[in-house]
Amino acid sequence: AAQTVLGNMLAALSILASRPFVVGEYITVVSSSFPQQWGTYPHETEPVGFSGTVREIGLIYTVIEGPDGIPLHFANGSLMTSLLINHSRGVVRQVRARLTVPRTVPFHRYQQEVGRALAGVSDVVPGSLRLRIVSVGESGYDVVIMVGIPAVDAEEARSRVLERLLALELPAPLS
Questions:
Q1: In what residue span(s) does the Mechanosensitive ion channel MscS domain sit (predicted)?
Q2: What is the phi/psi pair of residue 137, to 5°?
Q3: What domains does the chain contain, in order, with CATH numbers?
């Protein structure tokens, strides 16, 4: 038990010295030590982990306030062996959406429509739009749309981008 306590204390000193995060920053902790359920398309989502705002870096535990307001206590030693994603330090965040397009709509025309729809969203970083076909089915194909948005107010900007994509009217099929 003393070894674990001492390890967590040394890990706290390491966290304070290397500063992968500080109090007030929004982070995600990804570790195989903490089981999580994967999303429908895990290869297209952010890594599955625990996210929240760092509230305290203590000698034994770091406390992160989760999105629902519940405090999460991580042993500092476990944080040292986890992937830590610091969302507060990026300048641009990525919005990803996966949509199914009918096969009758040519991809190049769909690209043009998405470009036009997102051109009116002031949050979109110029030149950041990318579309990729990720699967093809009998009646349609799945497209992943990726666009950069400013990290400041990212959730509101993400919502505006997704609302615009939901309102997108598909081009008429070629006959």
A1: 5-89
A2: -120, -175
A3: 2-86 (2.30.30.60), 92-166 (3.30.70.100)
- Are the C-beta atoms of 113 and 170 separated by less than 8 Å? yes
Q: Which residues in the chain show pLDDT less than 70? A: 35-46, 171-175
This prediction has a pTM of 0.61
Nearest alpha-carbon partner for 150 in 109, 108, 121, 107: 121
Query: Are 15 and 57 within 8 A, CB to CB?
Result: yes
What's the token pair of residue 166? 């939901």
Residue 167 to residue 175: CA distance in whole angstroms: 24
Instruction: Judge whether 29 and 64 are in contact, CB under 8 Å.
Output: yes
